[in-house]
Amino acid sequence: MMRATILKWLAAAMLAIVAGFGLPGWMLLPLSLALANALVVLGLVTIIRTGGVSFGQALYFAAGAYAAGQVSRLFNSADAFAAIALGGATGLVIAAILAPLLIRFRGIFFAMLTLAVSMVGYGFLLNAGWLGGSDGMSVPAPTYLGYAPQGVWVTRSQFFLCAALALAAGFGMMALFRSSFGLATLAIGQNEIRVEYLGGPIGTIMWIAFVIAGGLAGVGGAAVALIIGHVEPEWMFWTRSGEFVLTAIVSGSTSVVAVFVAALFMEALHMFATDMFPNMWRLALGLILLLIIFVAPDGLGSIRAFRRFTTKRLGPSP
Amino acid sequence: MTDLLSVSGVSKRFGAVVAADAISMSAGSGSLISLIGANGAGKTTFVNIVTGYLKPDEGMIALGGQDITKLTPREITRLGVGRSFQIPQLFSRLTALHNVIAAITICGDRGWMRLARSERADVLDRARGLLDRLGLSQYQSHLPKGMPGGARKLLDIAMALGTDPRLLILDEPTSGVSIDEKFSTMDTVIETARTEGRSIIFVEHDMELVARYSNRCIAFLDGRIIADGTPAGVMDDPEVRSRVLGQALGQAVDHADA
Question: Could you give the angle at which helices B121-133 and B149-162 cross, rounded to 10 degrees?
């Protein structure tokens, strides 16, 4: 069992290496973006498992992106690892501060309050001159421990970075979801009264889940900032949070692999639909969401055929 | 020796309704106590006060000599009071086995913090053992909605037992259980809890069950304790006969009419 798990992850890592060296740059770019966005969705799914849907993950995402942009100002180098670390730490710290307020609320109140807080952040960014105001700021091309890639290697390095982050986060979150902590988050999402009468510290567990989500969103935001090379306040706008929620709806919260599949799917949809019918792509998105809600209301991860390929379920949810 | 549970002068009012009126009682370890009384007599209020869901207006509750009056349900659970509910409180999207695993790991010492797999061997053994003793093995991979009402009741009790309580409080363990299963359910529950050395307080309407499974009975009326003693003694008490049992009989007739 354990060996099979490791082999699957090794296979995924090999696939990433082959893709990173073999695929053309125009394919690697959206793949990198999808993997980075998947990190944010993975965090959102962690929150969803405790019972609430955060409509404000863009706050931590954009905070991480802006932090990544600050690295070159602070350290006089644009090291990718420093940017990722600072981005993750920023998302994590902001989430840790806001969580005690936010996790007191449930259901629609939780969704609206997370959204409201992120919009406060958006307003702050618009007026923060030192962060570029409404124009945002550019993020210099990253170096990797002194290695400064050129030409197509810029894209390839970004892809390897995102793939490594995705593998690490996917592996870590899968272990977390299957742990006692992961079971406790599911339990809170399903019956808080019972958890209280089992002696479970609901607030602490929800706080940890929220902070993990903030950290993952920060890492994802930092990675996207390095890829795009620019960050602007729109990244904190609520529609960005909505995109993460949509991806989480497509993936469902029963499978880590489904989160990555959903993120890739959404990126591909975005790319092809905007290219082929630029005025209609939102219609296509809506139709596909409808289809998913009818065919698999619990998301891709709940489809039986899908599960046959990925036995890695997020804990015991059947 | 300090009593396991000691309740002194506890009162609780909801507006004009007095749900608990200067209730005092104590129970040593090894107790097997039934609480009787008509609907609205204050049995569930008593249970809710002891388990910390309601805070009394007056009075004090102690567990093993420690004051628990102001503690939360979470803290009281961690001190060793497990409870079941009239309406089973389960995790609807987890299997029966994982319901019990969750109970064991969430309550275990820092159990929820452990990053090891929730289904590690010792937890799995205990969860399976509990399901086995309560006769739920056949349902271990069922969701609660796929289980009969009696089995859901038992699963709720299995979760309370999973917290390893010194005192197990059962709120109407046989309500919703079919008549022919009531005795087997109580047999299983009481025997399991007794062999594990737990004290039990249970709320019950069926006097036959009270007589058979408890060795002490407390009768409630209008938020007061009106009788406390052996089941036979309490049932012979004139006030209990006229005000509690008579009413229960009347209700039974009402139900039959409906």
Answer: 140
Q: How does the average pLDDT of chain A come out, rounded? A: 91
H/E segment holding residue A259: helix A256-276
Among the residues of B196-258, which ranges form H helices? 207-213, 231-236, 238-239, 246-257
Residue A50: alpha-carbon gap to chain centroid: 17
Choose the weakest-confidence range: A109-113, B112-116, B122-126, B195-199: B112-116
Residue B94 contacts A where some CB pair is shorter than 8 Å? yes
B250 pLDDT above the threshold of 60: no
Residue A304: the pLDDT is 66
Question: B194 with B90: CB under 8 angstroms?
Answer: no
Report the alpha-carbon distance of residue B77 to residue B75 in Å, rounded.
5
B184 part of contact set with chain A, CB < 8 Å: no
ipTM: 0.90
Asked if B74 has any chain A CB less than 8 Å from its own CB, the reply is yes
pLDDT over 50 (residue A276): yes
Helix (H), strand (E) at residue B34 = strand B32-36
Contact A205 B115 (CB under 8 A): no
Q: Which two tokens stand for residue A232?
A: 């602007």
Of B78, B89, B118, the CB nearest to A180: B118
By Cβ distance, the residue of A175, A179, A198 closest to B163 is A198
**Cα–Cα distance measured from residue B188 to residue B133, given in angstroms and rounded to the nearest whole number:** 7
Chain A residue with Cα closest to B98: A316
pLDDT in tens, A96-110: 999 999 999 999 999
Q: Do A184 and B102 touch (CB under 8 A)?
A: yes
